[in-house]
């Protein structure tokens, strides 16, 4: 069959949209209009720009008087380009554009952040932000009045180039200085803010991998803080140790990068999320970031209001928290578990800057919102200034009632001191500290994390050290200091806990779970099939709770005589404990009859949505049925899903209704869907299994859906799913199903037509051959 005929027979709605979308993109010249994307090139390149634009090659902002583009540019070496269209009156037309073309640069394993900014803004001897300037006080080591303490911002073009060479972001952003005392370093930190006015209101790329945010508005490009010219990785390493979901402690995602500034190599940095109200709003689904009260240090207001926190501190100072009533009141005002885990992490790290250097927040518009803390700036931990810091009794340091003005003044230890007078909080602090010494803070786990971070930097470190006159020997000394701390710290911290709390002797405990569930220890970490083996204290009983996964039910304990799934285990007896929780499958009568059939994780107009189909022969009432993505859960209201019918759930029903007029209003879905894929499940009222899929759509630009090709097929088999560009068919049979019916019908007519052609050809041949 001719290719053109084959193309015409494809499904029009999806094939045609994909085809014409690609054609329109090519014809209309999407993007900046430059013929080459900014990025890495092995040798010289020729670059063309839109006719008539004005451009610069030194990083400065183009004006109507800049060079006028008249012919292709030959790029022989690394070049920074900025260009802008202007009207006849010299007014800018549209957003500015630019790019860093890295030609013949050394290879790297790091994401590249290429920044173009007016050179005078950073290096002018009077006004430049990278110089002290005439206002600096040379007699004070902090140099107050220096230009780098500015809070102003300035436009800068930014390219983010992935390790595979893809340019994943190219736009103008707002650039500003960042950091505290680290501004004194020669290699200075800065932050970037995406702005709609410049053409990109967010950095829309999963810069921090699949476990990080899919996009963000603000980024910090950090020089390592106090760890500069030492290990270069402490802060990212330590915050990255909080892997277990039980932490429930916000912290910045991190990724090492290399920076080029106006085409010049500027060294290794760490890309971080920026802690501000938008960071909190994104993490906690808060609609209006202006409702957030964000504080730092001793009641310094970064955003919002102070009053509620001041009332909390006044109450704590005036009341006996060892008593149940006042302690319950404090639990209503602050997230005690969140604060406790912050203290556990900072105590393990021996972060000597943790007393006053803190960030905490609440959602002022939510009456149920409580104060929560953010793990932040921990690079003074893990022996930054002392090779034997693993020996330090940081627990005593953080409970000192009469410490100096810095680093542990009395106000900074007040909450921990008062909370530890409560037996419930004290037991949680001790047992959870031990939980993490057995898991996230176990020497093998931390050592593996160190080696992973070192491997990320090793190839690029010689260039960094040469750029900023660092010492490889000094770098490796600090890496060894990290390793020593990781190996030795648990032993010393365990003894500090034992002594401080008169905790008694060690007790060996092993806890595991059979398939279909987990055991939660101390309302904290969860033991699965591999189990958790550790040593707890005789004077602190541990709490166990068997939790069945969706589709399973608790069956019973091995190693315990208890029948209840929740147990408090007294450890006075010295014998070792070996405990296992068992579970059995729980399957709904309609399993695999109510199924997912279409998923839309990428619709600019409608938002995320998904479709469920009833392929049973009966109407089903879905009251208390559950839809889950493993993290979030929706419990369905009382509604009937008829036999053969469809139910659509939308993250934004208002946008969905506007995008699909005429369709019934969908049910609200309280969570979004990942473009990269995830696990979705349907469960009955008691958690009985109904349907589950691991969807993983092919990478597709623009809007697309992931659709089951036929509702009768096994929807758990990825072979029967297809990724299709376009808006999808919510609440209706999927396009591939319709296409199959169309093709079946069209094949019939094509065969008839082809048969007639053959018959006519045979008749014509006989006529021709029968002539004399």
Structure, described:
The protein is an alpha+beta fold and 772 residues long. The protein has five domains: 39-136 and 144-241 and 250-272, no CATH class; 282-501; 506-585, Ubiquitin-like (UB roll) (Roll); 594-733, Immunoglobulin-like (Sandwich), CATH 2.60.40.1260; 734-772. Helix content is 27%, strand content 27%. The chain contains 16 helices and 38 strands. The strands form nine sheets. It has a seven-stranded mixed beta barrel with strand order 8-9-10-11-12-14-13. A six-stranded mixed beta sheet has the order 34-33-28-27-37-38. It is globular and about 85 Å long.
The share of residues in helices is 25-40%
List low-confidence stretches.
Answer: 1-30, 738-750
For the biggest sheet, the summary is: 7 strands, mixed, barrel
The tally of beta strands, per DSSP, is: 38
Instruction: Give the mean pLDDT.
Output: 91
**What is the radius of gyration?**
31 Å
Q: Looking across the biggest beta sheet, what order are the strands in?
A: 8-9-10-11-12-14-13
Strand percentage lies at 25-35%
Distance between the termini: 35 Å
Instruction: Report the total helices.
Output: 16
Number of domains: 5
- Helix/strand-derived category reads alpha+beta
Shape: globular
